[in-house]
Amino acid sequence: MLLRFILIIFSLYISPAYATDEFHPASPHNINWKFSGIFGSFDKPSIQRGYQVYKEVCSSCHSMKRLAFRNLRDVGFSEDEVKTIARSYNVIDGPNESGEMFERPGIPSDYFVSPFPNKEA
């Protein structure tokens, strides 16, 4: 009983110390990123490695469906590399002459394919 009383008094004594101005969390340091400012630029090899990580790991769950294959040229991929990457995806297109949707190899103007067959999946 005495121990409980001591703990209550101690907690009431200590808690106002955390509410004073003396307790400040550390603020983040100002970092000058390479891509900051008007003349900032991105490290293209790093962005290309990021795409590789996305392709091998993240693309199984996450989509880049609002990004076209042609946008990969902006981060340093050559025209031939973009075409090769686009062809590695099957894109649903159509309808054909009989009104059916069909799959075809992607082209640079296509958007990345969602990993899910529909919005509910």
Automatic annotation (TrEMBL):
Residues 45-121 form the Cytochrome c domain. Binds 1 heme c group covalently per subunit. The keyword Heme applies. Its cofactor is heme c. GO terms for molecular function: electron transfer activity; heme binding; metal ion binding. InterPro entries: Cyt_c-like_dom, Cyt_c-like_dom_sf, Cyt_c1. This is Cytochrome c1. It comes from Ehrlichia ruminantium (heartwater rickettsia).
